[in-house]
Amino acid sequence: MMKKTSGIHHITAIVGHPQENVDFYAGVLGLRLVKKTVNFDDPETYHLYFGDEGGKPGTIITFFPWVGARQGVIGDGQVGVTSYVVPKGALTFWESRLTKFNVAYTKKNRFGEEYLAFDDPHGLHLEIVEREEGEKNTWTFGKVTPDYAIKGFGGATLFSKQPEKTADLLENVLGLEKVAEEGNLVRYQSSSDIGNVVDLKITSSGNGMMGAGTVHHIAWRAIDDNDQLEWQKYVSEHGYAVTPVQDRNYFNSVYFREHGEILFEIATDPPGFALDESHETMGEQLKLPIRYEQYREQLEERLIPIKVKELD
Hints:
- The chain has one domain: Roll (2,3-Dihydroxybiphenyl 1,2-Dioxygenase, domain 1).
- Helix content is 16%, strand content 34%.
- The protein has an eight-stranded mixed β-sheet. It has an eight-stranded mixed β-sheet with strand order 6-7-8-5-9-12-11-10, covered by helices on one side.
- It is α+β, with helices and mostly antiparallel strands.
- It starts with 7 loop residues before the first strand and ends in a 10-residue tail after the last helix.
């Protein structure tokens, strides 16, 4: 039986100073900081999660911020571009907003859609595109209201070292449908109404190097724990080395590196980000996994204080 993921669960990237990260994704882009926690493998580093009001799968971008981190190089073996989707008619608002905050952008057209392309303060390549699909984000922050707010991921552009093998994985393992080709891009689509479009670049972008301004991994959606175990077995049977299940508090994860050398994750939709704090207060307090609670005082002393600020 062929399995099909419904789309992107989250995307995780490496960036620089955490306050610059918060200022841009909350203050400029208007996303909600839904979780302030630590890197479970490096607890003296934040792990910050931004998304829509509820932090739904398909809306979440997460960051490992390291002050003074070596600048990375975006290239093959990475997600090259992360795309956000906004309501129809909102692109003019975003042109004005990016200009207001001195964010340089260019306009691009691909597969009949217009994109605003720009970089975040640490060099991550981003885009904004309008689409009807996907429910509005009910979060309002500053002058970013639901009529203009980012609904979640429009998709991602994959830079692969072996694009033909990545294409096979997308179509014949993850179950995405090949829907179009244009220039050096092949477009794949999943069943969800958000985080459902993946463009695969079939020409080389040169070797990537992990560091600030690069995507660490992209995660695909599993319905629940049982579905994830099926995915773990299914992907392994297709010749990929898959990790044991990792408990990430807000979802469970398995990881594998596909043949184009992009790190893929399969993450469960539940339990979500209201697990350890209320929906109303998500992102306000530092939340730690149980094993680190005994070190809370030391960690809070070492972590750089951050604050979500309205920049309007």
